Amino acid sequence: MYKSTRLLLSAAAIGLGLPVLAQAQMELPDGDGKNLVQGICVACHETTLINGSVGYDQEGWEYLISGMITLADPIKSQITGYLAEHFPASGTRQPTLVSGDEVIEIREWRADVLGQRPRDTFMHTDGTIWWAGMYGSVVGMIDPATGEQTTYTLDPTARPHSVIEGPDGDVYYSGNSNNTIGRIDRETGEIRVYPTGNPEIRDPHTMAFADDGALWFTAQNSNYYGRLDPETGEFYTAQPPTNGARPYGIRKDSEGMIWIAYRGAFKIARVNPETREIDEFETPSYGMANPKNYFVRRLAIDSQDNVWYVDSAMGEIGRFNPRTGEFKQWPSPSGPDSHPYAIHVVNDKVWYNESRQRPDALVRFDPETESFQSWAIPSGIGVIRNMDGTPDGNLVIAQSLTNTVGLVLIGEENIAKYSDILVSQN
Length: 426
What we know:
- The chain contains 6 helices and 28 strands.
- It has 426 residues and is mainly beta.
- Helix 1 crosses helix 2 and helix 4 crosses helix 5.
């Protein structure tokens, strides 16, 4: 339905010669194919995404568009030819890749529903990979051993931002546009929806389960965080002490404490799920000028309960030791504009991405040697917005703009283990 609706809208725009989006658009240069771009591409997104891109050759534009919509020739050739001529590959924002001894292999799959922009992947305990298809209001699942995909269609207003496995094996999603948390029964596929009941919350964002089985979540633009009891449907919601904190990433440590990253401040916060008391900690960038307005997007926890986080504004990663109160930050290899985004810790090695680079770079940081290693992601003309670890020490990722989900196999042992049982498209 999502794809069909969009195609009809695009066709209507071309036939009538009318702009589809109401917001202001940047003027595109004249040329053969301009009207097609304005009719089809602008049916789904503004032209600023085209003008603001790093540009691609015709093959690159074809790959990018093929994850959004199915086009046949001659329309496809006219559109990609126009884009390649007027928005060619600029070579800007190349990552600074660092060599090293770690070996990885990245397997990727295109999501079946085009244009859904998959994000926030996780691997279920049964070995399947799940993601939130925000733009399509779907939750997707793939069996990496067979390549078979299953799509769960949600309320069109849900626009899920994140997905997570519950202690019961069910899959939970955050209804980012309709103020809900949803629960997909892993066995039956039935969906239960929990409205938060707080009209001030507009956008449930990222989630983490506490030791007692309650689900904690953030709501960035509403400046809230909260708790859901999945058994009773009862919610607890609260605002952080910092005005405009914009709670974003969230994780649980081994002692059961809930940690939250602030998208709107150079701070991280700790919530005691039993007492519901919250403590805030200022990062080293606190008080610095920040015209980018990024702050701290996400965080992760290592085996010693150190909190690792991305300082997206400064292009750095940081570590906070809750036992000593000590902070330390390291600049990312591609510099202050690299915009570190997603982050996770695997076997006490820190993995994250430089989301502003093209291609998007996957970076590994070894805290013992304080050394970096990085790789260009095959589908890296998009953005990894979150990442998670697998039970056997790998990573799952998603590239929103290219409509792909991926599995990062870490080390020769994992590569050999999966070599004969994975099916991938790359």
